[in-house]
Amino acid sequence: MTIFTSSNSKNDDMIIASDDPQAIYDLQCYLGKHFEIKDLGTLSYFLGLKISSSSNGYYFSQAKYVFDLLSRSSITDSATSSTPLDPTVQLTPFNGTLGHSLQFSSHSSLVLFGFFDADWTGHPTDRRSSTSYCIYLGDALISWRSKKQHVVSRSSTESEYRALADATLELIWLHWLLTVMRAPQRSPIILHCDNCSAIQIAHDVFHE
């Protein structure tokens, strides 16, 4: 469910998630004593995300956000592009994927794991590398990033190790968040790496 809260200084939207209806009601009553609140009902739209559910799980879509973005760019009538794209294409409209959604299956395990990668001196002007990672909870992709690194790496191992560190930080935060949400991880989190040197450096050994 979603609720709207208002105080003298700001307004906020809030999601309440629980399998205990009484706990939800008690929290609503508590908030109602301190803030002006409005119950918006079952969660359907939040922070640019359209949320729907079925017996198979939850579906998240950014169709409205993407359409608004295309409208501001005046490219709603442009032809769609298939993927993977030509590497020389810098921007392409997403008209062909407006109806696509991320599925969070009700039958999937809540096991957290991730993949990461990095190029080396890939940027043509400043020679900085790019970090990329994607993190899954079961079958669902829940976090991803692709960003240029802040400094120039002197080897492919260095650029991969920087990407490894960034992905690890994200996994640590998600591990904490899942623990707070009462979905703790029962086994070590697996982070997939394809660079042998970065794996060796990550081992708990002494390096000079």
UniProtKB/TrEMBL annotation:
<dbReference type="InterPro" id="IPR013103">
    <property type="entry name" value="RVT_2"/>
</dbReference>
<feature type="domain" description="Reverse transcriptase Ty1/copia-type">
    <location>
        <begin position="12"/>
        <end position="85"/>
    </location>
</feature>
<dbReference type="InterPro" id="IPR043502">
    <property type="entry name" value="DNA/RNA_pol_sf"/>
</dbReference>
<dbReference type="Pfam" id="PF07727">
    <property type="entry name" value="RVT_2"/>
</dbReference>
<protein>
    <submittedName>
        <fullName>Mitochondrial protein</fullName>
    </submittedName>
</protein>
